[in-house]
Design goal:
Helix content: 25-40%
Largest sheet: 7 strands, parallel
Bound molecules: (2R)-2,3-dihydroxypropanoic acid
Radius of gyration: 21 Å
Keywords: Oxidoreductase
Protein name: 2-hydroxyacid dehydrogenase
CATH architecture of the largest domain: 3-Layer(aba) Sandwich
Strand order of the largest sheet: 8-7-6-9-10-11-12
CATH class of the largest domain: Alpha Beta
Order of helices and strands: EHEHEHEHEHHEHEHEHEHEHEEH
Structural class: alpha/beta
Number of helices: 12
Family: Belongs to the D-isomer specific 2-hydroxyacid dehydrogenase family.
EC number: 1.1.1.-
GO molecular function: oxidoreductase activity
Length: 320
């Protein structure tokens, strides 16, 4: 039997592919860090039966209309805003994502970023490395407390819950805003459902954990930042598109809010001259929410299991 062709848009470890070598004919863009050029992706996808892609690939209408026998797209991310779902549906292409396996790792990073921003960890590290530390002093690099403060979680999905669990351990009050109320989460974690404005006004930490959709685009805009406490810290670990970067920059400059910790940006990658990256009270990370070796391996593994299921005529484990 002819093995289906799977095109993989980035170099991934051979050992993960090995168990599927008898099932699939793998073709791969052989670069670890550089995304596949669109032209190459379009060409390869014309011959492919399945695609294992990353969030760096724009799977839009034009792309989907020009594929041949493509049956399934396994997106190595829980978010799938890089894929035009409407066009995929019209074309009958199955799309899968990678929920669950990255939840705890992404929640760890959310908390790490929150704590690093609150306690100015990156500035403190630079302070020593640049040889600025001459004396100890009472308010040297003094930041904000995390324990017993209020966290506002916007988007109480799996990752939101995992962040809330961590917040509970720190004795924090947990407010959340979500499309729908999560009564079980409220009971389990003592979280309180509030409206968006209340969350902004009452939280010491406002965390964006919502997927990027029409409704959440620029949810965190000039108005939203104005409603936050001036001591408030904004953390974004979901998608850059949920925040208006210019409004965030202005709010930070005008000291309307205290600091921001950002793992995501509207256009990625950003350069060091990106306005937000030039501010001392902003920590910028290169979209590493789920980046532990174990979790990234599990995400790839889940993509392969989804592809395998589709070609065996079974229901994929995590279809979007
Ligand atoms: C996702 O999965 O959507 C993250 O942004 C990348 O891990």
């Amino acid at each position: 039997m002819v093995k289906p062709i799977i095109y993989i848009t980035r170099k991934i470890p051979e050992n993960l592919l090995k168990p599927y070598e008898n099932t699939f004919n793998f073709r791969m863009w052989n670069e670890t860090s550089k995304p596949v050029p669109r032209k190459v992706l379009m060409e390869e996808s014309k011959q492919a039966d399945g695609l294992l892609c990353l969030l760096t690939e724009t799977i839009d209408k034009e792309f989907l209309e020009n594929t041949g026998e493509l049956k399934v797209i396994a997106n190595m991310a829980v978010g799938y805003d890089n894929i035009d779902m409407e066009s995929a549906k019209n074309k009958g292409v199955i799309v899968t994502n990678t929920p669950d396996v990255l939840t705890e790792t992404t929640a760890d990073l959310t908390f790490a970023l929150l704590m690093a921003t609150a306690r100015r960890i990156v500035e403190a590290n630079l302070y020593i490395k640049q040889d600025d530390w001459k004396h100890w002093s009472p308010f040297l690099l003094a930041g904000n407390d995390v324990h017993h403060k209020t966290i506002g979680i916007v988007g109480m999905g799996r990752i939101g819950e995992a962040v809330a669990k961590r917040a509970k351990g720190f004795g924090m009050s947990i407010l959340y805003y979500n499309r729908s109320r999560k009564i079980e989460t409220e009971k389990k974690l003592g979280a309180t459902y509030v409206n968006f404005d209340e969350l902004l006004e009452q939280s010491d930490y406002v965390t964006s954990l919502v997927p990027l959709t029409e409704e959440t685009k620029h949810l965190f805009n000039e108005n939203a930042f104005k409603k936050m406490k001036s001591s408030g810290i904004f953390i974004n670990v979901s998608r850059g598109g949920t925040m208006d970067e210019e409004a965030l920059y202005n709010a930070l400059q005008a000291q309307e809010i205290k600091a921001a910790g950002l793992d995501v940006f509207e256009e990625e990658p950003i350069r060091s001259n990106h306005p937000l990256a030039t501010l001392d009270n902003v920590i910028c990370l290169p979209h590493i929410g789920s980046a532990s070796v174990a979790t990234r391996s599990e995400m790839i593994q889940l993509c392969l299991e989804n592809l395998d299921a589709v070609y065996k005529g079974k229901k994929p484990l995590t279809q979007v």
